[in-house]
């Protein structure tokens, strides 16, 4: 704390400064303005590539806890934490041009698999899973994961020395190996042995671009109809009732429109990355009930390459519907010349933390893709292609009025 105070006094950070001006060409602003009914960014978006570079290169000017963490600080009993390995430190880093990104530090080495006895809700959360999920989402042409990039962060200069949060300052310490470390206070964990440490200052992690503020672009958080039980025993109805989808189809908005098809898209995405932790999904209210679902918080993906959790595909296998555009993209990525693992491998090489995924995880994508196509074929054999494959290839282009509009 004393060092941090001296650092701030040296830079005269407490004196009034001229207000920062918002540059219209700032990559963060251009990313927000590019959000439309079709996705978070256009297919060939130079803005996204520029945003990824800025998140890699720009100097952090402040660091803090996220708002939800602040709301929960102190409102928990650390003795009740089931498994501290399930926690995930995350911080909001701010950059020039009003840019903000969620920083998630490395918690698990790439070659480590999640132990098979772990429940999904106490699993490790992985920074490289966030990075890989963004690349996969873009390859699948969903464009529903915010731009995410890997970066080495100097935890001393880019977090400790720029934060104004005294609680965050207080959780930094120097380990016996002379590495600078920090840990999360309640509600995530309370012990320094669960900290993350630099080497001695540098720590790798993921940076995910923030979406527009809720004041500018309100979002809804909606429970997933195929939510899992977050307890050690008991099952949800969908896990024991193979006809569960019939019930879902009777409930608005799943009874018509694209919502159920978007749920199936999300299930396919989660099955490919092995994510069982999709308890809610979010949507922009601006685009109405048929808007796309945001694929946020993917850090519990890519945990076990040796196991395919087919229950994640329940929305597809129980409802037996899929978008034609999604099916065509999956079929293309199953072709030898466009194999999903090869496309992912090439895409992930663009990240500075490459290799982001180990080879077994990449090969698991090809295996899981075949299981998805097998499930679709089974549905078609049972109900016919006309009932299973929804034709969404002739959708009109969204009008300009549907594009996200922000005010400065």
Number of domains: 2
**Spatial strand sequence of the major β-sheet:** 1-2-3-8-4
Low-confidence stretches: 11-16, 76-86, 395-408
The largest β sheet comes out as:
5 strands, antiparallel
Radius of gyration: 22 Å
Determine the fraction of residues in helical runs and give it as a percent range: 25-40%
What is the beta-strand fraction?
Answer: 5-15%
Distance between the termini: 36 Å
Structural class: alpha+beta
Residue-averaged pLDDT: 85
Basic shape:
globular
> How many DSSP H or I helices?
15
Number of strands: 12
Order of helices and strands: HHHEHEEHEHHEEEEEHHHEHEHHHHE
What features would you describe in this structure?
Belongs to the FAM20 family. This is FA20A Pseudokinase. One of its GO terms (molecular function) is metal ion binding. Strand 2 and strand 3 form a beta hairpin. The longest helix has 25 residues. The C terminus is likely disordered. With 408 residues, the chain is α+β, with helices and mostly antiparallel strands. The protein is built from 15 helices and 12 strands. Strands 1-2-3-8-4 form a 5-stranded antiparallel beta sheet, sandwiched between helices. The protein has 2 domains: 186 residues, no CATH class; 172 residues, no CATH class. It is globular, with a radius of gyration of 22 Å.
